[in-house]
Structure formats: C-alpha cells, structure tokens
Amino acid sequence: MIDHMGFPVTHFARSKEFYARALEPLGFRVVMEVSLSDDGEDGYAGFGDERPHFWIGTGKPLAGRLHVAFEAKNRAAVRAFYEAAIAAGGKDNGSPGLRPHYHENYYGAFVLDPDGHNIEAVNHLPE
C-alpha cells in the first residue's frame, strides 16, 4: 500500500548510522543518498532492498513520536533487528515477543531511535 515514506531527523549522520545498523538484519540498506553539504551532515538517505522505501533527511524535526513498523521475514529477524538497534544506540521500547492483544502470531520488537521515534520490526507468521 505505501510506496515510500520519510521524515526529518535531528542529526542526519547519527540517524543514518543508526538506521543502517538497525535495518541491516531485515535486509535493508542505504540504496540512495543525496548529499546537501560537503561534510555529509546534511542530506537524505533512502533505505530499501533494491530501491528506497524509507527515507530520513535533514530538516525541522517532527514534534511528537512517530511510529514506523518494518516487516521481518521471521522471528529471528525481529530479534536480530532489536539487538542491532540497541547496539546502534536505540533505547528499548518493547523487547522481542508475542503481542497476542494484536493477534495470535504478532511477534514484534520496539526501539526508540535517536529522535525518540518508535521503530518496530514485526512478523505475523506462526513459527
């Protein structure tokens, strides 16, 4: 349904590193980058598999907390995302596990990114 989405971040280089590390276990990487400065501190980075689906960039940071959920191929990928995101500086917002209040097989993990946004990896299949 969604082709791509993006939002501004407070510190582009820090957030780009966070997302590169956190999304790698899900099979996503920086596939397109637009630099707006010689030092790499301003610009846009698009993450995806073959083309960008998720973008971050410089700009006026959002007020409030945004929620983004990335599909994981299996529960192991959810756990790997969580571990990578925490190692990259994310803060725990819900360790990997079943969330049966959503549905029987909802397996997700939640971290807060450097700007405090709620980032999730989720798998809906029974293991």
TrEMBL record:
Domain VOC: 1-124
InterPro entries xrefs: Glyas_Bleomycin-R_OHBP_Dase, Glyas_Fos-R_dOase_dom, VOC_core
A Pfam match: Glyoxalase
Protein name: VOC family protein
Organism: Hyphomicrobium album
